Amino acid sequence: xxxxxxxxxxxxxxxxxxxxxxxxxxxxxxxxxxxxxxxxxxxxxxxxxxxxxxxxxxxxxxxxxxxxxxxxxxxxxxxxxxxxxxxxxxxxxxxxxxxxxxxxxxxxxxxxxxxxxxxxxxxxxxxxxxxxxxxxxxxxxxxxxxxxxxxxxxxxxxxxxxxxxxxxxxxxxxxxxxxxxxxxxxxxxxxxxxxxxxxxxxxxxxxxxxxxxxxxxxxxxxxxxxxxxxxxxxxxxxxxxxxxxxxxxxxxxxxxxxxxxxxxxxxxxxxxxxxxxxxxxxxxxxxxxxxxxxxxxxxxxxxxxxxxxxxxxxxxxxxxxxxxxxxxxxxxxxxxxxxxxxxxxxxxxxxxxxxxxxxxxxxxxxxxxxxxxxxxxxxxxxxxxxxxxxxxxxxxxxxxxx
Length: 402
What we know:
Layout (H helix, E strand, L loop, with lengths): L14 H5 L16 E2 L5 H9 L10 H10 L7 E7 L2 E10 H5 L5 E4 L10 E2 L4 H14 L4 E8 L3 H11 L6 E12 L4 H24 L5 E6 L2 H17 L1 H5 L7 H16 L3 E8 L2 E11 L2 E9 L8 H14 L6 E3 L15 E11 L5 H31 L2
Parallel strand pairs: 4-6, 11-12
Antiparallel strand pairs: 1-2, 2-3, 3-4, 3-5, 6-13, 7-12, 7-13, 8-9, 9-10, 10-11
Helix pairs in contact: 3-10, 5-6, 7-11, 8-10
């Protein structure tokens, strides 16, 4: 659900983007270089590292990030910082330059945006601090003065490893901004969680709406898992998403060739390893809501939601989320789920009552570096300007909708 309200720093893809050539990756010809092209990382080693990751992030799984890097407009051609212990890959952080990420021409590297709103780097749980230290050293060798972890889990073990590795060198990370978003504790009993979250009155109203929805055909909840099932379900999802307000704004995945190619490739590839599901709510044969759910280790990630707005009065997005909650809580392999939604999202926040702290973090690479101060000021100024612009857009939309 990363797309529900725009929060990512990368600009929206457009039809013009879809026809432009992919951006060049940062120059780095060898495995021992400070920077490597993302495509230079051996996929087998990357998958093995993902299995050992100290913290799950499905958006940096190789099948997902390589698909993004191959065709998603504005997100292609990323580089990576890598850490090794002898022949074993122990750390990985896809990156782009500060100039490319934020159009700020200062020497820093920024987490490459993987479409989902989570950029937590991948660190081996057996040596996380060593991996973080090596990634910081690789950034220094690349000649930059700061590393920016954007949309990272602030209270997670990965951020702790980077903080400890920085402090060992007399450096202090700075939180540039932060927010909390909805998450689900999937270890509880689903109906009890939903009663506590929504209350009996709201649940009764949703059941009434579901009964009315059944007048259009028996209501069913389907889960596509295999690559063959996913290939069919993703087309249904793309059609649903494009049929609503995203289609009207031109931001639906299907409307941009590179985005459609990325999501088709990524979902099919992840389904082969059991790391992707597409859930669909139907009224009879008609799909009325669909969502893409990724999996990494014991955590699920709710990526996107598409609904048939002809059924809006039945709250199809909420109905799907209720069924997804029951589905995840019944799965013993899933401990938690990240909504990857915007903060204060009106649909998911009342249903998933857990909260996950997310933020952007600036890590200086040298002590008392005046260039880092310049980078910090530039980022804060940009952030203020974007917030002001967003408020202006909301005011204009509210006035024009009257």
